[in-house]
Structure formats: structure tokens, C-alpha cells
Amino acid sequence: MDKLERIYAKSRDLVEREIEGEIIIVPLTSGIGDLEDELFSLNKVGKDVWARIDGKKRLFEIVEELKEIYEVDREKLMTDILGFLAELEKRKLVVEEVGCQVT
Amino acid sequence: MSGYLEELKLPDFHLWKRTEEKRIPLSAEIELTERCNNNCIHCYINLPANDQEARERELSFEEIREIVDEAVEMGCLWWLISGGEPLLREDFTDIYLYLKKKGLLVSVFTNATLVTPELVKLFKRYSPRDLEITVYGVTRKTYERVTRTPGSFEAFERGINLLQEENVPFTLKAMALRSNAGELESIKDFCNTITKNHFRFDPFLHLRLRPNHKRNRQIKNERLSPEEIVAIELSDEDRKNGLLKQMCEEKKIGQETVHFDDDNQLFYCGAGRTSFAIDSYGFFKLCSSLSHPDCVYDLRKGSLRKAWEKFVPQIRAMRTEDEECRKRCLSCPLINLCMWCPATAYLECGKLDKWIEDFCQIAHARAQGLANIQ
Q1: Among A98, A103, B69, B365, whose CB has the most other CB atoms within 10 angstroms?
Q2: Tens digits of residue pLDDT in B33-84
């Protein structure tokens, strides 16, 4: 299946905070984004992707929306967003909504 | 890692500087209760566990929720739960979970004697940022000489074991006092063994937050001499390096480390800059030690926002006309090595701006000790 057809939702086991424009992802339960002496920081594009992860949008929709905003090469944006989602998934900060895939 | 997501070490996080510039209350402490199941000889706050009057005056869960909601709206991120012994509160789990679900990084200070399998499950699933346990001794005799509570050592061991069995991380710290000084090396070994070479101790014993002559006399008797304090500090590598760093920072007075506008300004410390404390009864304080009646604000009659935006600047603007305080404390090049501050001065003598001889002796002994090893 095309990875861009995937839909992701933010984990229910985290709390998202915004302080002074900074997104801070606070793990609620153990095993989610476990950090000891670190915190996650999202850059501007990261924040824009994160804001669009809502359990409804397909990745290609996110890519298209951000392409309009940033006017960057589609392929490059796609690769970066897929890489970003892979990292978020590895850290259990997002989950794939498997029931919503188009096959 | 993609450029979109960055993992930053806490001290490098760019948010801190911005919050300081904008005076965001990033960090809070709440004393859930002044009651404690131990009766430590050196304690600055404890009341008996069954003190009904204290219990009835304590903030309710509902009141705590309102304060927390306001704090989170204002940008609070770190939240320390302390006491007394916070696990004495029957609604501890509700309060703890509420803080976690609001997206706060929650730390808990406890003596571990009331840790139950249920609490271990809670901490295992919803990890605290830090669970900090105080070690008063590593033998029953010493531990209970400090806590003055029969059975407390066994309860402490049981609590620690329960946490270890379920791999719940925690850190240990010790108070260094007359009653356990002979065992401090063993306490250090115990802490280093259990928490992978992490040992922290505090040799400064505060006097009672609420004046009590008898208890204050006991606390003073438990204080180590300046020479003893310096000897144990310099025998600990981490502590020694920390002090050396502090001494170097003396040179920055007036620039970064402390924030003098002029030498009449009483509050040179960070209290109320990005942090605050709340006592068990809903009184807002710039820091947990600052208990002067003019420096506390009743949240039951106001709001956290008003306390932060109106009350704190008034307190931080306080000046002193006391010549001795200005010359001997506020202008002192050793101020970073001294435990003097308006809060501790008030506890010692009932005034915010008095020079305290005992503190001065410790600061000078520290400076001398550090100079000798440099």
C-alpha cells in the first residue's frame, strides 16, 4: 500500500502542551516517547505536520497542504514527512489508524 | 533524526530563556500536607499524621484542581509534590493523576514508608519525572533516631523494595545531621549502589516554617559545624565540583547569576522569577521557604494570576535599609556560597534582612576549603 495513503493519530498516552509557541510533548504513560533528561522540540514544519495529525487526514493530504504553504519540491517534502512520521511512530507518539486505509 | 523533530537536553532547551524573559511561571511546588507519619528531629515543617485541625484546613482536591488549571494556562510545566509526607493524603492518586493528565512533568518527594503495591502500579504506569526519597540512615538505630518513629525503618525498606521489584525508577537523597553523621559514608554507599552512583545530600537544616522554640532548639542541635559541613562536602566529588562552579559564578554577580538592581534589593535569588510554591492551606509563596506573613498570598481569597502578576513584583521590589545586611550580605562576594537569603534569615531571626552569623561562618569556611584545594 502507498505509504502516503496512511492515516495517523496522536497517541492518547501523551499530552500536548504549547508554551510560548513551543510544542512540548509530555508522555502520560511509561513507554511513550520515553526521555530522561531531554525534551522533544519541533521545528516550524514539524509543528505544521504535527498540527495536521488528527486521525482523519491521509499523509498525501498533509503533503499537499504543506506544499502550498512552503512552496518546496513535493518529493523532498514527502520524504521528509515520511521520515518524521516514522520517528514519531517509533517513539509511539503517533499510531496508524489501520481501519481507515484505502487498499 | 529528521530535522522536524529534535531531542534536546533539558539545559539546552530554548524555551527556558524565553520563559525567564517573559516571567512565565514554569515551575511550581505544592506541599500537599504538613502532616507526616515520621517525626524527624530536624524537620522544618512536620505535624503529626493525625492532626485533625491541619487536615481540615488543607486544600481540597477541587481547590487544587482550580489552582493547577490556572497554572497550566499560564504556562506551568514542572510540578513538584512535597509535604509533609504527600502519600498521607487519601486523595494522592487523584491529585497525581490530575497533574499528569494536565501535561505537567511531575516530581514527588517522599519518605517511601507509605508506598503500597497500588502506588507502585500507579508510578509504573504513569511515571513521575522524578521520585525522590530521603534516606535518614541505613540501620534501624540511626534511621529511627532521626525519625523518632518505631517501625519506620522497616516501612522505608519495604517501600524501597516494592519500587525496586517493579523497576520503578527513583532517586535517593540524604540530610546530613548530627544524629546520622557517623553513618553518612554508609548512606552514601547505599545510595550509590541503589541508584547507580547518584548521591545527593543536604547539610543545611532549616528552622521551622512556623516558629517553634523547642523544635528550633532541636534542629540547631542537629546542625553540623561549618568545619564538619565543609569536610563532608569536599570529600564528595560532585558536591565539591558544584561548589567550585558556584564560586566561579560569584564573579558574575550583577550580570547573570544574581539579579541586583542595586545593593538595597532584598531578593537577589530566582524566587518568583519563573517558579512559585503553594503551602497545604492555599498560601502562595515565592519559594517554599519564604513564610514571612507579608510575603504570602491567600489563593482562597484571590487567584494565581493575581498572585503572579501583582503580588510577586511587589515582593521582589522590596528593599532593605539595614546597613549590616547591605554591607555584609547583599554586597558579599561569597553570597553564592552562603545559605543566607531573605527567607532563611526570617526563619533564623524573624527578619528578612538580618545578617546571620552561623551562615556567614559556613560561607567563609567553604570559601577557605575551596581555596585550599585550588
Answers
A1: B365
A2: 999 999 999 999 999 999 999 999 999 999 999 999 999 999 999 999 999 9
Question: Where do runs of H (alpha helix) occur along chain A?
Answer: 44-52, 59-70, 74-90
Verify whether the Cβ–Cβ distance A17 to B124 is below 8 Å.
no
Q: Which domain holds residue A15?
A: 3-100
DSSP-H helix ranges across chain B: 15-22, 52-57, 61-73, 92-101, 117-125, 140-147, 152-165, 184-194, 213-222, 226-234, 237-249, 304-306, 312-316, 323-324, 342-349, 357-373
Tens digit of each residue's pLDDT (9 = 90 or more) over B133-164: 999 999 999 999 999 999 999 999 999 999 99
- Nearest-CB residue to B127 (from A16, A30, A41): A30
Whether this model's ipTM surpasses 0.95 comes out as no
Query: Nearest CA of chain B to the CA of A93: how many Å?
Result: 12
Q: Do B126 and A30 touch (CB under 8 A)?
A: yes
Indicate which CATH number applies to the domain containing A72: 1.10.10.1150
B contacts of A42 (beta carbons < 8 Å): 4-6
Contacts of A29 in chain B (CB under 8 A): 125-127
Domains annotated on chain B, with CATH? 21-224+267-318 (3.20.20.70)
Counting the structural domains of chain A, the total is 1
Contact (CB<8Å) B18/A30: no
